[in-house]
């Protein structure tokens, strides 16, 4: 129970209430002492009035009056005359004198604590003002033992009452905490356990209903987290299923393309000049397709293979991309330009860079073809001090806002109807593997520009890999 929230509330409440009562105890015990002394002064004054009414009282009666007042001597000052009204033998000298007429709170508390912690019986003088203007002052001499006994008795009763109040308050708080905090928290924990056991079960998603605003916020945050996590788990499951399907398709497709490679060997021996010119490009395309299938199968088992970086001529790869896409678009309305300088070399994996450029150029051509208007796609590059920059620009309609929000997110960044949204996500991942970036430079009604940045220094690549 001590490790529970309500149990600790119970203990802390008891301790704090007792601490508050102790702070109240000190002035209250001082107040009790003042009341006790004033009561003795009042009794002594009544006894003095009785003597003034009949000054022929006997010695026995005087002693009885002093016993009833619980004092040893009574001095009453009326006008300017100080008169010993009642007296009895004093067993020892007077140790302290207390004047209650002008004593401050600090003085009263100090004197009370001193008396409480002084066990010896002492004789003290107490001075006060008579009630009902019966004189200028009244002074009594008394023993302190009865005062100390009364103070201890009063203090014990105060502490006992404080303990009862503390326990009662703590129990009430315990019940309140159980009802308004612990029970809702246990409900949240129960939802979390049910959701963890079966994330696909919608009944495990919490329905916020707490009355406490902080708990309500926690429930709403948990509900949002559960909904998002459920969607991610479903998406991951579908991706896993899709990965299995792609792996199977890639395996079969690789076998088919391998057979196609055998046929291209015979095509290369053709005497037709056009066939001999196109045969190498067909061979390169099939080789890249086989490589892609093998990479896909490897991706299903692990991650994308790290790039094999080396210095390569960018113009040749750019020309292969443009020629491949020209054959795909035919004599349509899309015009493709390659303005990459012939002498420009970059550090990259040629196969992966080819895949990225082909994907970007093909996306640009498809965007223009969808408008049914003529347009151009340009592939250019430049060299700077720290980086190489490659740009793919088109005069298409620009990317819609929905596509820009999740442009590089798989299955969410597709810009055209029917697209899976994987091309840009894979291309961005491949460029990150190079230590570079793929970003959307600009887009609008005048067209779209994608920019690839490749670092020139190897240290940048090593930092990116780290």
Automatic annotation (TrEMBL):
Cited Pfam families: HATPase_c, HisKA
Keywords for the protein's UniProt record, in alphabetical order: ATP-binding, Coiled coil, Kinase, Membrane, Nucleotide-binding, Phosphoprotein, Transferase, Transmembrane, Transmembrane helix, Two-component regulatory system
Domain of life: Bacteria
Enzyme Commission number(s) from the entry: 2.7.13.3
One term of GO molecular function: phosphorelay sensor kinase activity
Source organism phylogeny: Bacteria, Pseudomonadati, Pseudomonadota, Alphaproteobacteria, Rhodobacterales
Name of the protein this chain belongs to: histidine kinase
Coiled coil: 215-242
Transmembrane segments: 6-30, 158-177
PROSITE patterns, per database record: HIS_KIN
Domain Histidine kinase residue range list: 248-458
Reactions this protein catalyses: ATP + protein L-histidine = ADP + protein N-phospho-L-histidine
SUPFAM superfamilies tied to this protein: ATPase domain of HSP90 chaperone/DNA topoisomerase II/histidine kinase (SSF55874), Homodimeric domain of signal transducing histidine kinase (SSF47384)
SMART domains, alphabetized: HATPase_c, HisKA
InterPro entries to which the protein is assigned, alphabetical: HATPase_C_sf, HATPase_dom, His_kinase_dom, HisK_dim/P_dom, HisK_dim/P_sf, Sig_transdc_His_kin-like_C
């Amino acid at each position: 129970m001590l490790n529970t929230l309500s149990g600790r509330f119970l203990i802390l409440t008891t301790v704090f209430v007792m601490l508050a009562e102790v702070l109240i105890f000190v002035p209250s015990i001082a107040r009790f002492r003042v009341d006790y002394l004033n009561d003795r002064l009042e009794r002594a004054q009544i006894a003095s009035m009785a003597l003034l009414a009949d000054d022929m009282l006997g010695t026995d009666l005087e002693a009885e009056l002093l016993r009833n007042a619980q004092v040893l001597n009574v001095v009453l000052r009326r006008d300017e005359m100080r008169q010993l009204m009642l007296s009895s033998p004093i067993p020892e000298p007077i140790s302290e004198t207390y004047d209650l007429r002008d004593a401050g709170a600090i003085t009263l508390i100090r004197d009370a604590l001193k008396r409480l912690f002084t066990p010896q019986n002492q004789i003290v003088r107490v001075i006060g003002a008579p009630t009902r203007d019966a004189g200028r002052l009244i002074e009594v001499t008394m023993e302190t033992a009865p005062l100390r006994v009364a103070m201890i008795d009063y203090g014990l009763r105060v502490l006992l009452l404080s303990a009862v109040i503390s326990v009662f308050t703590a129990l009430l708080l315990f019940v309140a905490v159980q009802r308004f905090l612990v029970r809702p928290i246990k409900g949240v924990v129960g939802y979390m356990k049910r959701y963890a056991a079966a994330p696909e079960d919608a009944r495990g998603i919490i329905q916020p209903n707490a009355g406490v605003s902080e708990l309500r916020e926690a429930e709403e945050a948990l509900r949002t987290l559960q909904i998002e996590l459920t969607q991610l788990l479903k998406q991951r499951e579908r991706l896993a299923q899709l990965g299995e399907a792609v792996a199977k398709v890639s395996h079969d497709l690789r076998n088919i393309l391998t057979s196609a490679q055998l046929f291209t060997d015979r095509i290369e021996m053709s005497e037709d000049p056009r066939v001999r010119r196109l045969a190498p490009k067909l061979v390169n395309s099939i080789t890249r397709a086989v490589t892609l299938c093998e990479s896909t199968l490897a991706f299903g088992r692990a991650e994308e293979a790290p790039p094999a970086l080396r210095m390569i001529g960018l113009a040749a790869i750019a020309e292969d991309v443009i020629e491949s896409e020209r054959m795909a678009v035919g004599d349509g309305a899309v015009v493709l330009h390659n303005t990459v300088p012939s002498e420009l070399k970059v550090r990259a994996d040629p196969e992966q860079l080819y895949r990225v450029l082909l994907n970007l150029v093909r996306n640009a051509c498809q965007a223009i073809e969808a408008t049914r208007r003529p347009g151009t796609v340009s592939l250019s590059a430049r060299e700077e001090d720290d980086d190489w920059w490659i740009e793919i620009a088109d005069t298409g309609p620009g990317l819609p806002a929905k596509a820009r929000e999740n442009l590089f997110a798989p299955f969410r960044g597709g810009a055209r109807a029917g697209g899976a949204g994987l091309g840009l996500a894979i291309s961005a991942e491949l460029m990150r593997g190079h230590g570079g970036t793929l970003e959307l430079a600009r887009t609008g009604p005048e067209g779209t520009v994608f920019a690839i940045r490749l670092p020139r220094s190897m240290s940048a690549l090593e930092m990116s890999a780290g």
